[in-house]
Design brief:
This protein has eight helices and six strands, in the order E-E-H-H-E-H-H-E-E-E-H-H-H-H. By secondary structure, it is mainly alpha-helical. The chain is globular. The protein starts with a strand and ends in a 24-residue tail after the last helix.
Length: about 190
């Protein structure tokens, strides 16, 4: 424990290789995602949500608890924060860099199905004003690595008032925003 702290928006900040490696496992990532999005959940509900047996959920959740990402209250599990934040460090420990890259890749791949599910199951049922508000931002631009990190930081600052909102306001819905930042390899 001790590798995870919570920042001002409630995200669990990962800086150590062990917490990143633990979270990079797909079932553990699914458990953490479920807990951060829906709050405290029983072992049975988690098992159903992530599609594994209850005893397997307990093993994965206990591993997440060891590194400070979740905590147990009886038969319920709860995330220690509202989201996940980590960076691939610029220099220093190569082990942390490798773990952060593995976690980044695991997260990208774990959410790849969401747009397809949304299009098939949610979008056809949306009211017109919500359908008009939904969509994709797809832009190509020339950026340096430093500028790309700045764009991501600026986006977080722009969203801060909404990320810090603890309770929904009238007519609000919990919106999932996926932003992929995919630079090409150098030539």
């Amino acid at each position: 424990m001790g590798e995870v702290r919570v920042n001002e928006v409630g995200d669990m900040v990962l800086t150590g290789a062990e917490a990143m490696r633990v979270l990079a496992e797909p079932v553990r990532l699914a458990i953490t995602d479920r807990l951060t999005r829906h709050g405290a959940t029983t072992t049975a509900e988690l098992a159903e949500a992530v599609g594994v047996a209850a005893d397997e959920v307990v093993g994965h959740a206990e591993r997440l608890a060891e590194v400070g990402l979740v905590k147990r209250d009886g038969d319920s599990w709860e995330a220690c924060g509202r989201g996940i934040f980590f960076e691939i460090p610029e220099d220093g420990d190569g082990e942390v860099q490798q773990a952060a890259r593995a976690l980044s890749n695991a997260m990208l791949l774990s959410y790849e199905h969401l747009p397809r599910q949304w299009v098939a199951g949610t979008e056809p049922e949306l009211e017109l004003d919500w359908a008009r508000s939904a969509g994709l931002f797809n832009a190509g631009m020339w950026l340096t690595a430093e500028e790309l990190r700045k764009v991501q930081e600026d986006l977080e600052v722009l969203l801060m008032p909404y990320l810090q909102r603890k309770e929904p306001i009238p007519d609000a819905r919990r919106v999932r925003m996926l932003a992929y930042f995919l630079p090409p390899k150098s030539d």
